[in-house]
Amino acid sequence: MYIGIDVHKNSCYITAMDEAGNILEEKEIETEHMIEWINTIDTNCNIAMEASTASKALYHFMKEQKLNVLMAHPAGLRVIAESTQKTDKNDSFHLANLPADEIPTLFIRP
Q1: Do the domain assignments include residue 8?
Q2: What CATH number is attached to the domain comprising 70?
Q3: Could you read off the pLDDT of 66-95 as tens digits, one per residue?
Q4: In this structure, are strands 23-30 and 11-17 parallel, antiparallel, or unpaired?
Q5: Which end of the chain is more exposed for a tag (fewer CB within 10 A), N or C?
Q6: Helix (H, G, I), strand (E, B) or coil at 21
Q7: Does residue 101 surpass a pLDDT of 70?
Q8: What is the β-pairing status of strands 46-50 and 68-72?
Q9: Beta bridge partners of residue 47, listed in sequence order
Q10: Helix, strand, coil % in the chain, rounded to nearest 5
Q11: What does the alpha-carbon distance between residue 102 and residue 105 come to, in Å, rounded to a whole number?
Q12: What is the three-class DSSP state of 12?
């Protein structure tokens, strides 16, 4: 499963896809309920989220849970930056749909 998360201070938009690109789940969750949601996902999934002030704590929590999560550098996400229809839903879709080797990542200090 591939998951893209667009993280904001008060809410997160999530898109989960299977290996064939079929959307399994799309939803908005209040940021305060993300830990509950994270505890329900498969530890073998691949997660990508765009770096932001709000995403750092969530990234660290996911790493502590041994999840495979990448923090994407916003400037390197051309598909999102150049989108003419920039929405949380579209951003999370693009993050879920990008191959891991095409996600420009950031080093996040522990």
Answers
A1: yes
A2: 3.30.420.40
A3: 999 999 887 777 666 566 677 888 889 989
A4: antiparallel
A5: C
A6: coil
A7: yes
A8: parallel
A9: 3, 69
A10: 35, 30, 35
A11: 9
A12: strand
